[in-house]
Structures are given as C-alpha cells and as structure tokens.
Design goal:
Blueprint lengths: L4 H15 L2 E3 L11 E3 L1 H20 L4 E3 L5 E2 L1 H7 L1 H4 L1 E6 L6 E3 L19 E4 L3 E3 L9 E4 L4 H6 L1 H8 L5 E10 L14 E11 L4 H18 L7 E5 L11 E9 L2 E12 L1 H10 L5 E3 L4 E3 L2 E8 H12 E6 L2 E6 L10 E5 L7 H11 L5 E3 L5 H10 L4 E5 L1 H6 L1 E6 L5 E5 L3 H9 L2
Parallel strand pairs: 3-10, 20-21, 20-22
Antiparallel strand pairs: 1-2, 4-9, 5-6, 5-7, 8-9, 10-11, 11-17, 12-13, 13-14, 14-17, 15-16, 18-19, 22-23, 23-24
Helix pairs in contact: 2-9, 3-8
Bound molecules: adenosine-5'-triphosphate (ATP).
The site of adenosine-5'-triphosphate (ATP) has 16 residues, from strand 11, strand 14, strand 17 and helix 9.
Amino acid sequence: MSPPPTDVMEAVVNLCKRRGFVFPSAEIYGGFRSTYDYGPLGVLMLRNVKDAWWRSMVQLRDDVVGLDAAILSHPKVWEASGHLATFADPLVDCRHCKERWRADHIEGACPGCGSTDLTDARPFNLMFKTYVGPVEDEANVAYLRPETAQGMFVNFMNVLQTSRKRPPFGIAQQGKSFRNEITPGNFVFRTREFEQMELEYFVPPADGPRWFEYWCAERFRWYTELGIPEDQLRLRPHEPEELSHYSTGTSDVEFLFPWGWGELEGVANRTDFDLKAHATTSGERLEYFDQASGERYVPHVIEPAAGATRSMMAFLIAAFDTDEVGGEPRTVLRLHPRLAPYKVAVLPLSKKDTLTPLARQVLAQLQPHFLCEYDETQSIGRRYRRQDEIGTPCCVTVDFDTLEDKAVTVRDRDSTEQVRVPIESLVDELGGRLRL
Ligand code: ATP
C-alpha cells in the first residue's frame, strides 16, 4: 500500500531533514537560496551513489579511466565550448511584482501574481563568474564550471598519451558543477550547486551511432539494477527541434518524480564538435593517430551525463514505502544495499553491562567489512523502526542467549524475518545477503 505521490514528496523531504540526509544550507540564518547541505546519512548515501557509478563505469571496465579536473576554469574553455555565447536561459520579468521567471517554464502569466504584464524574453548566462587573484578586472575573470565535461575534452591528449588507451575509450569524472539557475526547486532536483557524474566516450566516427545505442541501454540498466522499478523510468529520445545543433542523437533517462517525468541523465552523441572546437580555439591538434594503420582522425564522443544529487533524490523517492508490521504502521526505505547509508546496525538487546562488551566485539568484527551503526538506547522495536526508516538492510541483535550460544539474530529490513547466526559466520552471512 503506497501513499499518494504528493505525500511521498513531502514525506521524503521531511525524512531527509529529520534523519540527517539533507539540511537546508545555513538554516540558522534562515537558509540560503535553495542550497543544501548533506548530513551524516546524506553524505554516506551520496558517496554510495557516486561509488556505484564509478564501479560500473570505471572499475568493471578496462576501457574507461578517471579524471578530476579543476572547478575554477579558464575563460577560453567556455569560449570554445560555446557556453559563453549560448549557455543562457530566456528570462522574463513581471512588470507588476518584479519577479523574474524562465520564459519556457511559464505560460504567459506570472506564476507569482498572475499578471500578464511581462517583458520580452532576454537571455541570461547561467555561469558563475569570479576573479582569480586580487584584481577584479576582465583579465582575471574565471568561471566555476557549469559541467564537468569540458575537463575531459581539454585533457584529451594528456589522457591519450599517458593512459595507453585508444578509441573506443572513455574518461569519467564526478564532481561539483555550478549553474546560476533562475528557478531552482523541487528540493535537490534543481540547485545552483550540484554534483555530476559524466563520461566522455571517444570512438571512431563511423561507430558513433552504435555506441550511442549501447550507452543508452547501459545507463538505463544502471538505474534499474539499483532498484528503480522499470515502470518509473523511461528513455526519451529528443525531438529533432530539441537537439543541440552538433548532436546527432540525444536521449534522456527520465524518472517519474511525484510531480511528473524529470531528467536524471542525458545521453548524447556529440560527434566531433567539442574536440574540434577546442582544437580551433587552442591551436592544438586534438586527434587520434593510429600507428598501425597510419590513420589520423578526430574521434566522435558519446556522453552519458548524469546528476549525482538528482539521482540520489530519485533513489530515495523510489525506495520510500510504508507498510504494517505487527499491526503498527512503519516507514521503510527499500534502498539497494549498495546505496543504503548503513549496511548493518548492531543492536544489543539491553544496555546492561553484560551485553555491551560482546556487542562491541561484534561491531569491531563487522566494521572492516561493512559500514555499521551501533545503537543501544530505546526498545528494540523502536530501534528496528529507526533502521527501517533510513534503509539499513540488516540488523544484528546481541541478546542474553548470545553470551551462551555465541550466536546473534539477523533481521531483514524488507521481510522483517529473523534468523539465528553464529558470530563466527556472521561476516559471510551478511556478505551473502548484501551482495555489495
Ligand atoms: P535540465 O534540463 O534539467 O536543466 P540539462 O539538460 O541542462 O538539465 P545537462 O546539462 O544534460 O542537464 O546535465 C546533466 C545532468 O546533470 C542532468 O541530467 C541532471 O541530472 C544534472 N543537473 C543539471 N543541472 C542540474 C541542477 N541545476 N541541479 C541538479 N542537477 C542538475
């Protein structure tokens, strides 16, 4: 029995605040313009989302290498990429209440006051501009990157020469990006500071379309494998008029958010646009030379570009559930074990001195293998409920019998089933259940 969608959104935002996933930034000062801070559980889960991506995109492959490029970036990068000239949203002002809106987000009337007295749309550049060094003049302008992708293009030759890779190969990067969004909102769906996970996959030009299809399927599968039901996910090919001028194909992986379909990731065939643009602007050759065949070419690029913070929110919404256990309502996050902040909670049945040393021993035995929480206050039922609510897949209870039989109770989050397991085989038992 799932709750209706609007309640889900409210419940998830609430849970995030109450349990320490996500806090409004600078809350003691009244918050700060749709910025958010990730709390003790959020930092674990966001890291898990990024690690799951890295595992799938880098660790399990031999054709992708990593990169971590600077956030402060050279203006030439954004001149070449086209961001300085065109990375803009059309804006309108309401003459009545003076609010500013994205022209493509409203339908002829101000969403604030309802007035139709709006200015014509004007472009507004979304990049955050700053100055490097003590002098604030045009010669010292720098931009906070609005995407991680350009770091991969400008380092193309560095990576090619040092990694011994040849097309088809990819460069993967995760990190913060910044966009001065006009209308941030829907919690962490759209913020001005956010995290991206991007792959630039360089291929021989003729193979572009085939690799584009491959990455669309691969990226769709990543979300379903981590627990998003297929009926809440779709791959939406862009209409011809939506396509960037250089792209021969783009499909978005979309999730059914409580307010409707929203993009989690864009997969684009960017052709040779980026490498050629940087080659022209920098005067450097950005090409691949195949020594065996004597062939020289500019690779085409397939780019799966995902948001880490936005997908964390989708994983939370998809995992949120309510049911009844022993006649009591419960909230449970049915997160994939790989994404759950804690994998195991160690819970001594009572706070009595007799159980604590053994429970701490069990904790110490598990910690090198799994991220664990230790909790010894309140009734065991309430402690199970707390763990269900933050998505901990397994609870390990140390009780008075443990002192005699050297076994503990392992409780499963989803089924609430409990089994007795000898301490000496606990690591194996949990490893089998969690399949990390
Ligand atoms: P949108 O249409 O939602 O503005 P976009 O098409 O501009 O997104 P891309 O430039 O393709 O987005 O960025 C790739 C991914 O980065 C997006 O799919 C999304 O997951 C994430 N992302 C982009 N902008 C934001 C933002 N302001 N806040 C959070 N995540 C974002």
